[in-house]
Amino acid sequence: MLENIETRNASRLADLHGLEVLDSGAEKVYDDIIKLTADICQVPLCAINVVEEERQWFRSEVGLGVLDALVDESICAHAIIQNDYLEIEDTQDHAFSMYIPLCQGDNPVRFYAGAILRTSNGVPLGTLCILDYKPRRLNGLQRRVLEVNANSVMRHLELTRALVEKVVLIEQSSGPPLSEDEKRLIEKTHVLFQSLTPREKEILKLIAGNSKSLSSKEIARALDISYRTVHHHRAHIMTKMQVHSVAELIALSLKARIFA
To answer: In CATH, what number does 2-154 get?
Structure first.
C-alpha cells in the first residue's frame, strides 16, 4: 500500500516538473484569474499553487505576500488528496487545519476552500484556493466559479507547455517560407530586444535561449543574484518585449532566433 502511494506521488511530481512552471515569474493571466475569483467569492486571500514533495509554490497570489510554504503547513497539500474540492467552513473545527500555523495566532485564517488543479490525465498538482479570516460558507455560484477557474488555470498551464514544445519543434525543422507579417514580427522583436539592458538580455537567454528554460531560482543561482531580483527583471523583460506570459516570451525569442 505504501509503495503504491509513493509510486503515485512520484508520478504526480514528474507531471508537475514536466510543466516547467515552478519558480517562474508572475503572469497577467493568472493574476487576473485570482483577482476575479477573490472578488466574486468576496475573500481577502486567494492563490494558485502547486504542491511539491516538501513545499507548495504559489503561481500567483493575492493577500498572502509569500512565494511558497512548507507542505507540512499547507491545507492545499491535504486538499489534493480529495476528489475535486475541499471547503472548510471553520478551520478551528477541522481536525487537520486547526493545527496549521496559518490558522493560529492573533489573526488566524478561519475559512478555506480549494478546487483541485487536475491535469487532463486526472493527476492532482495543486489548487486554486481562497481563504478568509472569518468562518463562512460559499454559495453555489461562488463554488462554481472556483471550480471553473481552477479548470481554466490547469488547461492554460498545459497549453502553455504545449505551445513552447510546438515552437521548439518548428524552429528545429525547416518550415515553410516566412510570411510578410512574420518577417515584420521578427524585425520588431529584434528591435525590442535591443531595448533590454545587458543583465536583462542575460536573463532572457537563460529563460529562452534553449528548449529547456531555467526557473527563477536556477537563474538566481547561475547569476549569483537574489530570487526576487530575477522576478523583478522578468517583469521588466516581458513589458519591454510586449508579451504577457513566459510561454509567449520563449516562443517569440525562438521564432525570431534571437540567440541563434
So the answer is: 3.30.450.40
